[in-house]
Every structure is written in structure tokens, then in C-alpha cells.
Amino acid sequence: MAPKVRKEAPAPPKAKAKTKAKALKAKKAVLKGVHSHKKKIHTSPTFQPPKTLRLRRQPKYSRKSVPRRNKLDHYAIIKFPLTTESAMKKIEDNNTLVFIVDVKANKHQIKQAVKKLYDTDVTKVNTLIRSDGETKAYVQLSPDYDALDAATKLGSSKLSPAGYKSKYKFFSQSIN
Fold first, then answer.
1. How is the chain split among helix, strand and coil, in percent rounded to 5?
2. Mean pLDDT score of the chain, rounded to an integer?
3. pTM reported for the whole predicted model
4. What CATH number corresponds to the domain at position 81?
5. Which helix (H) or strand (E) holds 136?
6. Distance between CA atoms of 125 and 96, rounded to whole angstroms?
């Protein structure tokens, strides 16, 4: 006669619950995935702190009651036109006006000032610092404007940006 196969005794309910809990825990872990710490590879011996977000200031009110006035405006840039013989020659030959300008003014500012004050188009501006420390500007007008006409208009209407002093000759006097 064949030996009888013994049936295993059913597991007690406590053990069954334990294994079920273990299985659920394993399932959760598998679903969640592994979160491991990756080591950052440092390639430099010096530590550079990260560039964090730095927001601009948003003031509730202005700290200045009135914005500062621009001291180098069009009238301050051009002091007076030069009326020397060489300046007159430049006007006639090269269609160029010669001005004494503020030392702090750059070529772009001089160009804009001449455009605004004398209603002419400027081709280019050359500057030269004189031995007395003043800056001389050679302002070449565009071909459709005549420097001689601009100079006579300047002299006749006495359009002086900084207020002509009587010691300066006007263009109209020196041209005639």
C-alpha cells in the first residue's frame, strides 16, 4: 500500500495576516521606487555657492522727491561757435561748423545738441582738446545743408545756446 501523503496543517490566521502585511509592504515599496542619494562629483577644489534668485527691490515709495536735473543738456553742451579765420575756412571749404563744447560731452551728445538747437543734419563730429583745456568740436553738416547759411543764421538771429557774451564775435560780423 502507498504511503499516505500528509496534508499540511492550515497556517494559523495570525501568521497569514503577517505574511499578507509583508506582501503589501513589499508591493508599496516596489510601486514607490528607490530614492537613493547620488554623490555629486566635484571637479574644482574651490567651492562656489550657487547663484540663488535675487529679486529686484520693489520700494513702496520713491526715496527722492524729485529726479535729478540733467546738468549736461543741449544748451550746456554747446558753449559757443568759434569765429577764427581757420574756423571760417572750415565753414567755406568743408561744410563744417566749429564749436567750443563742454569737456564732459561726447560726440553723440554734441551731434544731438547741434541737431536740436540749429535744425540741421550732422554727418560727423570730430573733437579736439585744446591746450587751454576746452574741447573744440568740428561738426560736419550733411551735403543738403549749407554751413555758410547755418553760420549766418546763427549770427543774425544770435542763437546762442549758453547766452553769447559780447566779447565773442558773431558769425555774421566775421563773414562780411
1. 35, 15, 50
2. 85
3. 0.56
4. 3.30.70.330
5. strand 135-141
6. 9
